[in-house]
């Protein structure tokens, strides 16, 4: 299985690349900075240097050709302003989906965020822009003729994997290790019961495989 990951140097993406390599699958990570390439190679992932804020759709489609799945795990990240929430969390997500359609890659997983459709009183300008961008990116993906899944994790941690989760269309807010998010993403890739669904994800008391079958 060949999986192309946008935001290939992100913390979730690197966990996903590591797990894919462990199962003998091929991970391709799209990165913006060539200095990040060695970290991906250390995980047995193939780095592709491409700036999703400025790339043409055909450039991204060329990377996606022949892939079994596309995973959008990019984000402007902490410290970025309102403008980059629009260009990365929304603009790059749209570009990646456009490229997937052009390349004929139907399976598409997008990492969203819990709370994008719930009021956040007192949210600052930048965080509010982030939520708007994430919601718009979700709405854009839902309108496409792709086998998409939107995964909304709770507060992300760098703690070791627990291996038990709560995965459903609506869950109470909580936290989850990035390693567990990556394990869920791999399990979802070939799971048709997750197609065209928005799923929220936090640590729970159900093993990952069982949580997937309960969908």
Structural notes for this entry:
The protein is an alpha/beta fold. The protein has one domain (2-213): NAD(P)-binding Rossmann-like Domain (Rossmann fold). It has seven helices and eleven strands. The protein has helices spanning 11-22, 37-42, 57-64, 82-103, 125-142, 178-189, 208-213, and strands spanning 2-6, 26-31, 46-49, 69-72, 107-111, 147-153, 155-157, 164-168, 175-177, 197-203, 206-207. A nine-stranded mixed beta sheet has the order 3-2-1-4-5-6-10-8-11, sandwiched between helices. It is globular. The model has no long low-confidence stretch (mean pLDDT 95).
What keywords describe this structure?
Rossmann fold; alpha/beta; 9-stranded mixed β-sheet; 215 residues
Topology (SSEs and partners):
Blueprint lengths: L1 E5 L4 H12 L3 E6 L5 H6 L3 E4 L7 H8 L4 E4 L9 H22 L3 E5 L13 H18 L4 E7 L1 E3 L6 E5 L6 E3 H12 L7 E7 L2 E2 H6 L2
Parallel strand pairs: 1-2, 1-4, 2-3, 4-5, 5-6, 6-10, 7-9
Antiparallel strand pairs: 8-10, 8-11
Helix pairs in contact: 1-6, 3-4, 4-5
Brief rundown of the structure:
The chain has helices at residues 11-22, 37-42, 57-64, 82-103, 125-142, 178-189, 208-213, and strands at 2-6, 26-31, 46-49, 69-72, 107-111, 147-153, 155-157, 164-168, 175-177, 197-203, 206-207.
- List the strand order in the largest sheet: 3-2-1-4-5-6-10-8-11
Could you please say which CATH topology applies here? Answer: Rossmann fold
Oligomer: single chain
The CATH superfamily is: NAD(P)-binding Rossmann-like Domain
Unreliable runs: none
Tally of alpha and pi helices: 7
CATH classification, class level: Alpha Beta
The shape is globular
For the biggest sheet, the summary is:
9 strands, mixed
Structurally, how many domains make up the residues? Answer: 1
The CATH level-2 architecture is identified as 3-Layer(aba) Sandwich
- Terminal CA distance reads 23 Å
Query: In what range is the share of β-strand residues?
Result: 15-25%
Average pLDDT taken over every residue: 95
CA-atom Rg in angstroms: 16 Å
Helix content: 25-40%
The run of helices and strands is: EHEHEHEHEHEEEEHEEH
Structural class: alpha/beta
């Amino acid at each position: 299985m060949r999986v192309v990951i946008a935001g290939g140097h992100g913390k979730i993406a690197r966990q996903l690349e590591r797990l894919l390599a462990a199962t003998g699958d091929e991970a391709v990570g799209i990165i913006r900075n060539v200095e990040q390439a060695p970290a991906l190679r250390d995980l047995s992932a193939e780095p592709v240097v491409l700036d999703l804020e400025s790339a043409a759709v055909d450039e991204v489609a060329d990377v996606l050709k022949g892939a079994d799945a596309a995973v959008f795990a990019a984000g402007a990240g902490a410290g970025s302003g309102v403008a980059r929430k629009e260009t990365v969390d929304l603009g790059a997500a749209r570009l990646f989906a456009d490229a997937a359609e052009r390349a004929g890659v139907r399976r598409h997983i997008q990492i969203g965020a819990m709370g994008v459709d719930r009021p956040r009183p007192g949210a600052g300008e930048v965080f509010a822009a982030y939520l708007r961008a994430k919601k718009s990116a979700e709405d854009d993906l839902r309108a496409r003729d792709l086998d998409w899944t939107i995964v909304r994790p709770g507060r992300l941690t760098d703690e070791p994997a627990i291996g038990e989760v709560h995965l459903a269309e609506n869950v109470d807010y909580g936290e989850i290790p990035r390693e567990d998010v990556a394990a869920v993403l791999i399990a979802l890739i070939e799971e048709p019961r997750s197609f065209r669904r928005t799923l929220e994800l936090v640590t729970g008391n159900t093993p990952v495989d069982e949580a997937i079958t309960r969908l």
